[in-house]
Q: What sequence folds into this?
C-alpha cells in the first residue's frame, strides 16, 4: 500500500521529506482521525505515470501542469485511528509496515 502526494519542491514540507525520508499525515477531523507515519521518497518524473493520472482524476487538477510541483511516494509504517477517547486503547492498525488487524 502506498500513498502519493504532490507539493512544490521548494516548500518546507518537501524539503523535510527529502532530508528525513519520513512524513506524518493526519486525515479526517479532530474527532475522527487517521494518523499515518510513513517513509517517503521523491519520485523521478519518469516514475509518476499511473500515480499522477490517478491523483489528477481523484483531486481534479494535475500538478504536472504547475511549475515546481513534484510527487512523493509514502509507504505507511504505522497507522493509528480513533474517533472518541474510549477508542484510544485499540487505535493501532499497523506497526513496522505490518497490519495488526
A:
Amino acid at each position: 500500500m502506498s500513498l502519493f502526494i504532490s507539493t512544490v519542491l521548494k516548500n518546507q514540507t518537501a524539503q523535510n521529506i527529502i532530508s528525513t525520508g519520513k512524513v506524518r499525515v493526519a486525515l479526517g477531523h479532530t474527532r475522527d482521525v487517521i494518523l499515518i507515519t510513513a517513509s517517503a521518497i521523491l519520485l523521478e518524473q519518469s516514475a509518476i505515470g499511473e500515480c499522477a493520472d490517478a491523483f489528477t482524476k481523484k483531486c481534479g487538477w494535475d500538478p504536472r501542469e504547475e511549475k515546481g510541483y513534484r510527487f512523493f511516494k509514502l509507504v505507511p509504517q504505522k497507522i493509528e485511528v480513533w474517533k472518541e477517547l474510549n477508542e484510544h486503547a485499540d487505535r493501532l492498525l499497523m506497526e513496522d509496515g505490518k497490519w495488526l488487524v
About this structure: The beta strands are 3-8, 22-29, 32-42, 69-82, 92-95, 98-99. The mean pLDDT is 88. The longest helix spans residues 49-59.
